[in-house]
Amino acid sequence: MGHVVVHASSVPAGHGPHPAASPFDRRISEALDVTAFEISQVELPPGAETVDHDHIDDRNDDVYAVIAGSGWVVVDDEPTPIAPGQFISVDLQTRRRLRAGPDGLTVIAVCAEQR
Q: The organism sits in which domain of life (predicted)?
């Protein structure tokens, strides 16, 4: 087969290998059988947060694409508001977490080892 189509709702949420894995992560890359990078849909309910983390040890870059809701990316304990349509990149040595606003927050998280 030359392609795979997966709807995010068909991928169960749960912890994965990412240092900030949470019960809110849908590991899309596994469902697509993609191994070059990790891609997850993270669906945070109102007020929920991901784990504060960096990527010093695994040398992974993170990019987040906000697709629904609102919230903050908290970088070194400094919150920055985020909204749909925005993309966020954080240096691997910088601690970060996502925090959902009152309407929840859904992001696509892409994680890949630096080249």
A: Bacteria
